Q: What sequence folds into this?
């Protein structure tokens, strides 16, 4: 779903790119020279529909139905099977939701879902069933969310999430950041975003200036799962953010058939480092209905981590964690 703000006012390259993104399974397969018959389990009518920017698709290997980037975005019929333990609210977001898109789980931090929109639909998304906006206008919800944050002095860090917070246009983001900057107890601002990877043209000079000059000091956590996602354009976008002085961390999800091999995780950490990003979290999959085919066992996850520890400097080894509803922090996996 594209917010109205993206279709009104000014258009820019990234908004054009978003409009041109693949929304249809057959168009994407044709662009990759793949016969639909080579992907037998396709789902052309998935509720959580296919969405892939063209430049991201261009990073996939033509003719390879098992491409790790393709696997992350292609809707499959297997997603319709219900599996025990896999639910619509796998991480307890409903319980932590204070209202108006503000989640409160951990000390000092509030997570604010500022939009439901993303530039790419990841099949394993733990919020794939949380896509409907709440009541009232976006502006009214935004005001109410800010009031919640302003009323709670224990909140020292605000995490902008969604959806993807960079789906908001520059004017909306600037307004929101300015309002957060007026709340004294908010000392840090964090953005959880996949856009520098999946829609690198979003990282404009204006955006970099806006984030770098924000009053609460700002940090960006990108989301990437495979080294091939970090092509030249993503590298340039990340370089721009680094150059503007913004610290960059990354989070990845451990996904069967995408990155559940030691060489792939090593390559991902190395590539992130080359792009100025330090790995932060490697998440065990959140058990969201529709994503069971991506699951990796804890045993295998721990074995992979052991290899990463042997092969990489400590600062390139992500923290392997799982999110347990009700826990007071992300929980490290232990053997
Ligand atoms: C993951 C998460 C955070 C941030 O946790 P950190 O360990 O600080 O990265 C904050 N709020 C919610 C609701 C989260 O899911
Ligand atoms: S970018 Fe994040 S929020 Fe958006 S679909 Fe992917 S996992 Fe979900």
A:
């Amino acid at each position: 779903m594209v917010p109205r703000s993206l279709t009104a006012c000014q258009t820019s390259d990234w908004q054009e790119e978003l409009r041109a993104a693949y929304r249809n399974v057959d168009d994407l397969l044709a662009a990759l020279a793949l016969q639909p018959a080579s992907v037998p389990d396709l789902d052309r009518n998935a509720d959580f529909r296919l969405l892939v920017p063209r430049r991201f698709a261009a990073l996939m290997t033509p003719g390879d139905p098992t491409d790790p980037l393709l696997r992350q975005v292609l809707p499959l019929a297997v997603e319709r099977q219900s599996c025990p333990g896999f639910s619509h609210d796998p991480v307890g977001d409903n319980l932590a939701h204070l209202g108006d898109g503000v989640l409160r789980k951990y000390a000092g931090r509030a997570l604010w879902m500022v939009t439901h929109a993303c530039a790419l639909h990841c099949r394993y998304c733990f919020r794939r069933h949380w896509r409907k906006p709440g009541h009232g206008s976006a502006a009214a919800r935004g005001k109410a969310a800010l009031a919640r944050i302003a009323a709670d002095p224990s909140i020292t860090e605000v995490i902008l999430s969604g959806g993807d917070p960079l789906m908001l246009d520059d004017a909306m983001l600037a307004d929101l950041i300015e309002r957060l900057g007026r709340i004294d107890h908010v000392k840090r601002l964090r953005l959880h975003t996949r856009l520098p990877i999946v829609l690198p043209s979003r990282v404009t000079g204006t955006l970099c200036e806006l984030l770098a000059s924000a009053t609460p000091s700002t940090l960006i956590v990108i989301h990437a799962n495979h080294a091939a996602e970090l092509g030249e354009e993503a590298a340039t976008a990340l370089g721009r953010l680094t150059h503007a002085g913004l610290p960059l961390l990354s989070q990845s999800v451990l996904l069967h058939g995408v990155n559940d091999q030691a060489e792939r995780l090593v390559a991902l950490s190395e590539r992130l480092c080359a792009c100025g990003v330090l790995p932060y979290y490697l998440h065990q999959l959140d058990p969201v209905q529709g994503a069971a085919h991506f699951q990796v066992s804890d045993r295998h996850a721990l074995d992979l981590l052991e290899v990463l520890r042997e092969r990489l400097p400590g600062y390139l080894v992500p923290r392997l964690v799982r999110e347990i509803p009700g826990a007071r922090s992300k929980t490290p996996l232990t053997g």
In short: Residues 281 and 319 are 5 Å apart (CA to CA). The first helix runs from residue 13 to 19. The chain has two domains: 14-80, 93-332.
